[in-house]
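User: For my dataset I need records formatted as: sequence, then structure tokens, nothing else. Please produce one.
Assistant:
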Amino acid sequence: MLAADSPFFFDPFAAYENGWVTNPNMFTCGAPGFRKSTLVKTALWRMHAIYGTRRYLAVLDPKGEYSALAEAMGMPLVALRPGGNVRLNPLDGDRSIESVQRQVRMVTALLDTAARSTEGHRLSTSERTAVRAAVTVALSQPGPTLADVVGLLRHPTEVSAQVGQLSVERLATDGDRVTQVAEEMLSGPLAGMFDGPSTVKLSMDDPGVVIDLSSVFDDEEALPLVMLATTGWLTELRTAAALGKQWIQVLDECWAILSHEASARYLQSSWKLGRTHGVANWMIAHKPADLAAQSADGTSTSKIADGLLADTATRITLHQEADALPDAQVRLGLNDHETDLVGQLVAGRAHWRIGDHTAVVQHVLAPSEMRLVDTDANMRADGEG
């Protein structure tokens, strides 16, 4: 990368350690055809070249575009398919108090998102209590899965009643609707992907993992749920490993997980813990407005998206079309000159804001890196995103 005809180096953790930023989180946006994906993939490749397996790279890949990077880096490629034979169990974990609390939040967010998607309204307070009791009891048993949570929602136990501080009968009544939502979720959007024990066992000696979600990319109901469940699984994988590794977690097409308030809030809670757990979260979108444009519940989700950007100290902006510039200026805190500049950027050139520091950087692709990005002949016709 070149800035003012000089080499340009950036690393999110180095920036944090040097006090340039208050967190290692990143956001990258760019209109289709202006080399956004090229920048992301080669940045990950170069980090791996420098840090090797001291870093763990976890990529949520909704469009199936990172397979060449996975192969080049020796990362496992986990392809999730509805009704397939590859499963991730988001209730894997170390069973610490913190892990149980996270998983209660994650399952509640899953079911709240599913309820919003299928029935148009959120879980009630009593339904949340029923979910909390079911998840807590399931996690106290060996090898819990989401199917066990559904069973405990349908048939609460005396232990469930103690956790929820309600009678068994009241828990069953309060949980009736959310039980139906959970059953439909497991037999529908999450079937064959998150409805049983994990079939994937990753090694922390690997440089990372790419999780291919392209089979559900066009399913507006399934994609947010799959991204949320996958994020929850990765969180527990990271905390259970406890190896002190720094993580780069990439959320491509991040608008999907921000499309419902519950999943957006779950992501926000994970975002804020990045510094504590050594995680640099990296959101990827076409334009800043995408973070809230797909929201099913309007202003509340838009505010959460703005909060995520506020907790993201490094913002890399490639070319934005004219109609996207006003929103980009507001959400990214650009001045008038920077806004005009972003509208004129050529392919591969980006405006970088690293804390209070800014630079205009031309991303230079080495010939050896072409194999990482030129994986689809359609790119040459339609332009790479």
